[in-house]
Amino acid sequence: DTAVSQTPKYLVTQMGNDKSIKCEQNLGHDTMYWYKQDSKKFLKIMFSYNNKELIINETVPNRFSPKSPDKAHLNLHINSLELGDSAVYFCASSQGMVSGANVLTFGAGSRLTVL
Amino acid sequence: GNSVTQMEGPVTLSEEAFLTINCTYTATGYPSLFWYVQYPGEGLQLLLKATKADDKGSNKGFEATYRKETTSFHLEKGSVQVSDSAVYFCALSDDTSGTYKYIFGTGTRLKVLA
Q1: What phi, psi does B72 have (nearest 5°)?
Q2: CB B73 within 8 A of CB B58
Q3: Which terminus of chain B, N or C, has less C-beta within 10 A?
Q4: Mean pLDDT over all residues of chain B?
Q5: What share of chain A is helix, strand, coil (3-state, %, to 5)?
Q6: For residues A72 and B52, what is the distance between their CA atoms, to the nearest angstrom?
Q7: B25-74 confidence digits (pLDDT tens)
Q8: Which residues in chain A show pLDDT less than 50?
Q9: How far apart are CA A101 and CA A47, in angstroms?
Q10: What residues have CB less than 8 Å from A35, skipping those under 6 apart?
Q11: What are the helix (H) ranges across B2-110?
Q12: Shortest CA distance to B88 belongs to which of B105, B101, B72?
């Protein structure tokens, strides 16, 4: 039983298409995140939800839209894909906004390639 | 703003060598500090953490001490193995902003040769 699972693991698509990545956690955590990792391994926070409420929304193009139907799920929809969106997208979760206990559990990543 | 700086890699060592990966931080408050490890093709996983000054985090033979006076959290291991080959990320959790936002370093790739 994977703690944080994301699908699909690989996604290859054409520029201009719309795609979604899904994430589910079975840890009972209150907070979920999306991170983007570029080809140089640099990791950047995109969004964070706490109990379905958006709490972190970094400077991300509005083509990216997160959706959290419940606290166990956080999906990422990307419109009008561009070449620069090619990256590995990681979902993560944590117990909540508790000082010192904010340990992240990551999914295995979804590699998006835009042609 | 808060930031994390870690040494650039790649770091290449022979098996059983001593490892140090430097990490320094800037923070306005009292962050928690972490080391995460990413094995090839996987997500990041927590290696160790320290939540206050002078705390030492340790796991799987790795250690790091939270040094407030030098704003550092260097990762060390006395004898590395081939299986330690991975990318290591230093990170801080900003506990003062109310969002506990993570700031990650750029990652240091470690390659251990048999």
Answers
A1: -130, 160
A2: no
A3: C
A4: 92
A5: 5, 55, 45
A6: 30
A7: 998 878 899 999 999 989 999 999 999 899 999 999 999 999 999 999 99
A8: none
A9: 19
A10: A43, A44, A45, A46, A89, A90, A91, A92, A106
A11: none
A12: B105
Residue with tokens 């999914």: A107
**Look-up of token digits 């251990």:** B112
Are the beta carbons of B102 and A102 separated by less than 8 Å? yes
Question: Pick from A45, A55, A105: which is nearest to B102 by CB?
Answer: A45
Cα dihedral B64, B67, B70, B72 sign = positive
- Cβ–Cβ < 8 Å for B101, A48: yes
Nearest to A8 by CA among A25, A26, A16, A20: A20
Show the tokens assigned to B1: 């703003």
Q: To probe the interface with B, which of A38, A43, A45 has the most B CB atoms within 10 Å?
A: A43
Residue B96: per-residue pLDDT: 66
| Predicted pLDDT of residue A40 | 87
d(CA A112, CA B81): 32
Q: CB burial class (10 A; 0-12, 13-18, 19+) of residue B6? A: buried
Residue position matching structure tokens 């430097």: B22
Evaluated on CA atoms A56, A58, A62, A63, the torsion sign reads negative
Residue in A18, A14, A37 with CA at minimum distance from that of residue A107 = A37
